[in-house]
Design a protein that fits this description.
With 148 residues, the protein is mainly alpha-helical. 55% of the residues lie in helices and 9% in strands. The mean pLDDT is 89. Pfam families: 5_3_exonuc.
Length: 148
């Protein structure tokens, strides 16, 4: 529900701050649409730049990053043998998960190429696990509320 409301607000250019310590929600950070993340543990506002500094990828790639690197705290398997640094490198080189799983699988030789070929299904499953589920009923409720 948090993602649904935050994305609804982004679409309408409504400034939004998501207050949580859940890094999965870094995907919602968007300086252009004034959508930020407030880390309740560190008591700091997290911008796109802060996401880049912390995770090494832009907010829009957090989902793809976790699909490759995994996240033990959320039981996201990722691709076995592809850690955080390698996930960052692959996303930088190929642009996104689709690029990694198409061009990267063909272009990577040696151990990394082997890991990607063997881990394609795991990467796709992992991405599904970290993808936001949008609730149309909640959007309808928000629209009705704003009209009132």
């Amino acid at each position: 529900m948090i993602a649904t409301i935050a994305l609804f607000n982004q679409h309408r250019k409504v400034p939004t701050v998501v207050m949580t310590h859940d890094y999965d929600l870094y995907q919602l950070v968007d300086n252009t649409n004034k959508s930020y993340h407030y880390d309740i543990r560190t008591r700091r506002l997290v911008s796109e730049r802060a996401v880049m500094e912390r995770m090494g990828v832009r907010p829009k790639l957090v989902r793809d990053y976790k699909a490759l690197a995994g996240d033990a705290s959320d039981n996201i398997p990722g691709v076995k043998g592809i850690g955080k640094v390698r996930a960052q490198q692959l996303l930088e080189k190929y642009g996104n998960l689709e690029g990694v799983l198409t061009r990267g699988v063909k272009g990577q030789t040696g151990r990394v190429g082997e890991l990607l070929r063997e881990g394609t299904e795991s990467a796709l499953l992992s991405r599904q696990l970290v993808e936001f589920r949008i609730c149309p009923k909640l959007i309808k409720t928000c629209e009705t509320f704003l009209k009132a």
